[in-house]
From TrEMBL:
Pfam families, per database record: cNMP_binding (PF00027), HTH_Crp_2 (PF13545)
InterPro entries (alphabetical): cNMP-bd_CS, cNMP-bd_dom, cNMP-bd_dom_sf, Env_Response_Regulators, HTH_CRP, RmlC-like_jellyroll, WH-like_DNA-bd_sf, WH_DNA-bd_sf
Molecular function as annotated in GO: DNA binding; DNA-binding transcription factor activity
Cyclic nucleotide-binding domain: residues covered: 26-127
The protein, known as: Crp/Fnr family transcriptional regulator
Provenance organism: Nitrosococcus oceani C-27
Domain of life the protein comes from: Bacteria
Amino acid sequence: MPLNILSPIAFSPEDLELLRGCGVTRTYPKYTILIHEGDLSDSLYIILSGKVKVYISDEGGKEVILRTQKAGEYFGELALLDKGPRSASVMTLDKSRLSVVSKTIFNRCLTEHPDFALKLLCALTQRVRSLTENVKNLALLDVYGRVARTLLDLAIEKGGKLIIEERPTHQEIAQRVGASREMVSRIMGDLATGGYIEVTSKTIIIPHRLPSAW
């Protein structure tokens, strides 16, 4: 149930142009499921435009969001490397355009452009580090700690303040931290009342350091 999975290393514009030529470009409507957890498939997906979420779910439909990804990032590389089933599901959050690269073409690209292999190795190393951090968070942080960590992970610094430019819903935060929406709503309400966060229709501003405990 990762809380702080870092996005994979993004491809440069030159990389994207090359991969666009190697793959098949497809456009998908909002809320299209691209990959089902457990599927056997062997394609790499490069996001050219739009946004997707990577998530896991149980038989009862409970969902945990692992991360969101945007243009310039990619997913699906693990199935190309180990031939195993998909470890998570992926759904578009906006109308999205992707380059779908088959395993055969992917292997050819690695042979002809070894810098891709180095980027993938760096990305996999990054994910292992993130997994270690997430296990620590799950073991040591309560729900408030996980919510606070998620807010900080989503924020960028702008004008001396931390800002989340695309405000997640309470349900989306709950799905990231493995808690109920009601619990997250109470925590967010208390943070807003205390002046620790400022919520607008599109953003969340964090003007002050978040308290260490709730």
